[in-house]
Design goal:
This protein has two domains: 135 residues, Rossmann fold, CATH 3.40.50.2000; 166 residues, Glycogen Phosphorylase B (Rossmann fold). 33% of the residues lie in helices and 15% in strands. It contains 13 helices and eleven strands.
């Protein structure tokens, strides 16, 4: 495929926050290959902020928006006369759309069977698998990414509560799944140690994280709780003011990477082999490598299937504090 001859393409990645952020190196590299190329993107409307300010995107379409059914969406997409579709979702929803467009298709290889083997039988065929942005680019044979990281542009003004001279460290304690969440009590104890060493804690998250951020903030004297709503561009602007984000394996980890803030990420039920580690950003991964039960899921679980939750509980606040201080000073 000669990309210099293409005029307009469609990329499909419907969700979620981190997954869409991880497409941005591919988007940028495609445009760099052909500056005249019009790149359109199909996603769920709730993730529009991820690409709203992206200068390499020519158009955005919404899947199952309030104003349009899927069939109406397909009709709209047909009228755009795309040259190709690049399906980075590669599930039954995206299949229906790409099939209906009747144009050449390039697909992301999800390696579902390899993930099944690793989760259920601990047969690791993903040991040398590249990170997800590189695998997205692998949808096209011999396509290479540039050397830059993720993109997330914001025009918001950081909160007046933030002062870089305060040695700000961010906490993003939320996650969709219990098995990927470091306990809130651990965040509080880590925060106390950091505060005693001259740092100030800033809480980040969206609407679903309000309760846990409130609980952690109430347990930490003089912390700044910026967890209010799902305004991603405001979160990004605020996050640019901190010197480090402590988080779970979550979308906030990739937001920090996109605004070039170092990350200390705590991995519980998930593992690095799945490819969702911070991309081209300074990072520290904290994980319990001694457990034979990891990973227990490639997405996350609502409880520990073994009942002990050692993947998170054995990463103590003391251990995390010592590793984070070394990381900051490195």
């Amino acid at each position: 495929m000669n990309f210099n001859s293409l005029e307009k393409i469609l990329i499909i990645r419907l969700s979620s926050l981190g997954d869409i952020l991880l497409t941005t190196p591919f988007i940028r590299s495609l445009r760099d290959t052909n500056p005249k190329l019009k790149i359109n993107f199909l996603l769920r409307q709730k993730y529009n902020d991820v690409l709203e300010k992206n200068p390499y995107i020519s158009g955005i379409f919404f899947y199952e928006s309030r104003k349009q059914t899927v069939n109406e969406l397909i009709n709209s997409l047909r009228q755009e006369n795309f040259d190709i579709v690049i399906d980075l979702q590669n599930n039954f929803r995206s299949y229906k759309i790409r099939k209906s467009l009747n144009i050449p298709v390039f697909k992301f290889q999800k390696r579902t069977f390899d993930k099944f083997l690793l989760v259920n039988f601990k047969i690791n065929r993903l040991k040398n698998a590249p990170q997800i942005p590189i695998r997205y680019a692998g949808s096209i044979d011999n396509f290479k990414l540039d050397e830059s990281g993720l993109d997330l542009l914001t025009d918001k003004i950081p909160s007046e509560k933030l002062d870089e001279s305060n040695n700000l460290i961010g906490f993003a304690p939320g996650s969709r799944h219990f098995s990927k969440m470091w306990p809130k009590e651990y965040f509080i104890k880590l925060g106390e140690k950091l505060v005693n060493n001259g740092f100030k804690i800033v809480l980040f998250g969206g609407k679903s994280d309000v309760n846990i951020c409130n609980e952690i903030s109430s347990g930490l004297k003089n912390s700044i709780n910026l967890c209010r709503d799902d305004d991603l561009l405001q979160i990004a602007a605020n996050m640019e003011k901190i010197k480090l984000l402590v988080c779970n394996d979550s979308g906030m980890m990739h937001v920090a990477s996109a605004v070039k803030v170092p990350v200390a990420a705590i991995f519980g039920s998930s593992v690095k082999e799945f490819g969702f580690t911070p991309y081209k950003n300074k990072n520290l991964i904290l994980e319990n490598k001694l457990l034979s039960c990891r990973p227990c899921s490639h997405i996350g679980r609502e409880r520990c299937p073994k009942g002990h939750f050692k993947c998170m509980l054995e990463i103590t606040p003391e251990l995390a504090f010592n590793e984070i201080i070394r990381f900051i000073e490195s």
